[in-house]
């Protein structure tokens, strides 16, 4: 006999990463469009450390965080989506559903592109990314343009993400509470291995120190 009970699904690092990322991107949007470059760079370095840790956590972290476990074949995704469109509630192992997994990968690629182009960008005034001096002025301007266009794509992806989550709630599947509490109700035969998120925070702290001393120190000193 199986029971449906609350079980751990998202460790504390995944949850903290998710909400810190959402707030930081809001801040990057505001500071980028307002030209508040010292804050923009500082927030970007914070996000750089956060996302780097998420990528490492995607290999060594909880099973629900591991890319190799949650990214399924496109066929699985199509079957999942067609069943959903028929109004069924296809079951999937605890963690990201097959379609959501591709959204995670898309977010990662978009954010890595955003961070990389930012490092080579310039604002035509006095601020330039720390690696802009390595490329010609033309290349830096081109990467700055990509930085602006890619952000619009990110906004589109966020819109899609929020729409998908709203559709799930209309269909009585609450995804938000588990992303806050870490726990979700599912069959106790399918328990994923959720490790202590503290290790994720330790990695984040170590990467944060490296990013601070190699890239962020000078610009953070200007903030206050
Ligand atoms: C800047 C805005 C946001 C970005 C870039 C973003 C990105 C992401 C990413 C990358 C994941 C995968 C988490 C992982 O495996 O590490 C995720 C999951 C999730 N996000 Fe967001 N998110 C944003 C805002 C929000 C907001 C405002 C909400 C709530 C209304 C939300 C609700 C969720 C939920 C519920 C999941 C888990 C989905 C599942 O069960 O598979 N997100 N998000
Ligand atoms: C995921 C992280 C990032 C996000 C979401 C982001 C977002 C933005 C946005 C929305 C703008 C305004 C674009 C416009 O003018 O329409 C901008 C501009 C800019 N960003 Fe970022 N950015 C990120 C990372 C970085 C990084 C890592 C750097 C450099 C260290 C950087 C440097 C710049 C510069 C120099 C500009 C000014 C460009 C201009 O004046 O046209 N950004 N960013």
UniProtKB/TrEMBL annotation:
Keywords assigned: Cell membrane, Membrane, Transmembrane, Transmembrane helix
Cellular component, GO annotation? plasma membrane
Instruction: State the Gene Ontology BP annotations.
Output: respiratory electron transport chain
Domain of life of the native organism: Bacteria
Molecular function in Gene Ontology: electron transfer activity; heme binding
The UniProt record lists the Cytochrome b561 bacterial/Ni-hydrogenase domain at 9-182
| Membrane topology label | Multi-pass membrane protein
Membrane-crossing residue ranges in chain numbering: 39-60, 99-121, 148-170, 191-215
Q: Does the UniProt entry include the keyword Membrane?
A: yes
Q: Where in the cell is it found?
A: Cell membrane
The record's annotation in Pfam families points to:
Ni_hydr_CYTB
InterPro entries registered for this protein in UniProt: Cyt_b561_bac/Ni-Hgenase, Di-haem_cyt_TM, Hydrogenase_cytochrome
Q: What is this protein called?
A: Hydrogenase
């Amino acid at each position: 006999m199986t029971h449906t009970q609350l079980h751990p699904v998202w460790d504390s690092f995944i949850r903290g990463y998710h909400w810190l990322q959402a707030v930081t991107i809001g801040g990057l949007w505001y500071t980028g469009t307002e030209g508040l470059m010292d804050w923009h760079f500082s927030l970007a370095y914070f996000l750089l450390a956060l996302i780097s840790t998420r990528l490492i956590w995607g290999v060594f972290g909880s099973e629900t965080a591991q890319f190799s476990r949650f990214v399924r074949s496109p066929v699985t995704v199509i079957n999942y989506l067609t069943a959903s469109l028929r109004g069924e509630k296809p079951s999937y192992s605890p963690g990201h559903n097959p379609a959501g997994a591709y959204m995670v990968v898309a977010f990662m690629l978009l954010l890595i592109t955003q961070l990389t182009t930012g490092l080579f960008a310039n604002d035509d005034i006095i601020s330039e990314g720390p690696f802009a001096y390595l490329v010609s002025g033309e290349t830096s301007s081109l990467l700055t343009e990509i930085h602006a266009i890619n952000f619009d794509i990110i906004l589109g992806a966020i819109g899609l993400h929020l729409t998908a989550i709203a559709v799930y709630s209309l269909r009585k599947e609450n995804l938000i509470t588990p992303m806050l509490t870490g726990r979700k109700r599912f069959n106790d035969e399918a328990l994923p291995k959720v490790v202590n998120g503290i290790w994720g925070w330790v990695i984040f702290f170590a990467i944060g120190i490296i990013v601070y001393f190699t890239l962020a120190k000078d610009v953070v000193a200007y903030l206050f």
